[in-house]
Design a protein that fits this description.
Elements lengths: L3 H15 L12 H11 L3 H19 L5 H16 L7 H26 L7 H39 L6 H7 L2
Length: 178
């Protein structure tokens, strides 16, 4: 049986990932924030990787699969790893800068994938630069979405932990009992 904290974390991750199914502006989604949140809060690193990627796969199975999904999934796996850096000492500044780094990882990898695997741009340094340049408006949306959903997930879970002590990590619960 799952403990209440793990159940809450899994529910939050799946719920947030499924928010992709509601209409939203291009690239303003919760997916990178879900990956970052999972890396920061799941004690089991395998679950931290598996749960958000499974939630992404579930939403992709509903929305439709697309070419070069492996690049997108790789970028989100790396974002989970960025989340690992937040597990020890999360702060508003560290969370915000890591969310911006997550947006950047996604931007760099997915646009490199478009350049490398598709014929939209010449496979030259100039073609790569053009690919990144034309994707900049989408990057702005990505950053906005990632910062918004990161604040929502991390802030919301902090409020839940304050309201429901059972959601706090076991170490904190032990010390808070006195």
């Amino acid at each position: 049986m799952l403990n209440p904290r793990l159940s809450a974390l899994i529910s939050i991750v799946i719920g947030a990932a499924l928010s992709r199914l509601v209409p939203h502006p291009p690239n303003v989604t919760s997916v990178a924030s879900v990956a970052l949140f999972s890396g920061a809060y799941f004690a089991d690193k395998r679950l931290a990787l598996a749960v958000p990627l499974a939630a992404l796969l579930l939403s992709d199975s509903i929305l439709g699969f697309y070419r070069h999904m492996e690049v997108v999934y790789l970028s989100f796996a790396l974002v989970v790893c960025l989340g690992f850096t937040l597990s020890e000492r999360p702060s508003v500044l560290r969370i915000a800068t890591t969310a911006a780094a997550a947006s950047t990882v996604f931007f760099i990898l997915t646009n490199f994938g478009v350049w490398a695997f598709d014929a939209l741009y010449p496979h030259t340094l100039q073609g790569l630069a053009e690919c990144y340049l034309l994707a900049l408006p989408f990057f702005a949306h990505t950053v906005i979405g990632d910062l918004f959903y990161t604040a929502l997930l991390f802030g919301g879970f902090a409020l839940l932990q304050n309201r429901f002590p059972v959601l706090r990590p076991a170490l904190i619960q032990t010390f808070s009992r006195g």
